[in-house]
Design goal:
Butyryl-Coa Dehydrogenase, subunit A, domain 1; Butyryl-CoA Dehydrogenase, subunit A, domain 2; 3 domains; four-stranded mixed beta sheet; 11 helices; disordered N terminus; disordered C terminus
Amino acid sequence: MSTDIGHRDLAGSIAGFVDDVVMPVAPAMARGDGPSPRRIVEAAGEAGLAGILTPEALGGAGGSHGDFIRFIEAVARADASCAVILDVHLSVGTEPLLVFGNDDQKSRYLPKLAAGEWLAAFALTEAAGGSDAIAMRTRAVRDGDTYVLDGAKAFITGAGDADLYIVMARTGEGARGVSAFLVEAALPGVGTGAPLAKMGLHGSWTGELVLDAVRVPAENRLGDEGAGFTVAMSALDSGRVGISAQAVGIAQGALDAALESARRRRDAGSEPDVTTIADMEVRTAAARQLTAMRPHSSTQGSASRSMRQSPSCTPPTRASPWRSPPWTSAHRNRRSTATPQRCASATPRHARSTREPTRSSASSSRGIFSVTDPNDPPPAAW
């Protein structure tokens, strides 16, 4: 399977993958009777997209988080199930290996994941404690040159089809008593439950992972013993970026459908609700810009930490481009204080930009029934 693609060809590879692979299976994935998650990742590997973030030396595309975001959004625009399968594989399934893995672990697993030969999954959540690592009950006991893992994980994306699980297990007490392990699905004692019947994302398998006295080689511990909490939180930070891109893609797909319906109504002589459609476009475009900013802000040290602590805050080096409408209490509070508030406890539902919205001339000339291309670069002012 080829994963040797240049950055100039990445956009074309993404578009071709969506048109040739995702679109034909989208109806079946929505019903839950489409290809398995592993088959979707295999197809991404054949297109050179199953290792976007993996270095070329290890069989990947050597792409950026921006490439990853554009890929997930494009897939989600056509099918949400395929998007979550690929997001989990690329982010929480692969990035912990990239960040915390040693050379031996990277050489053993990353080429298989990047080629789409193996499907990766992330196992943190448990039925009793959710994603709270402190409440984790799954244990890993050192026994010579192996660890013996016992416990169960819940709501695991790809359970039953994944080849490699990144598993969090308790090796001590407290936050520093959690360690991460690379657990191959073929190991004795690894079992899974039947995929859950969910309300949505029917094409993405979600189920239970059972670990019954699974002996994992000590060389498959990811990072130092007791560093699992750091591994888990880092992985979740990356995963949230992908889920944000997925949400933007779903919104864009809904907007596409609304526009098509509006065109039919217009052609039939009915007046569509152009105000609602315009609001949908603005909200989708704004969400896209925020998602594109997140990977950049994560490298900004203290600025990114303050943003994680209060998501409604903007980086301290920039002035917020948003203001509250005059009918909100937040606006009245700002008028009554000498120093404008930099962060609000809640973002107003109908916040408006202090700048006029930037629209391309092509979009303006086509009117409300055409939207700005989601692949356009963000405005320079942002």
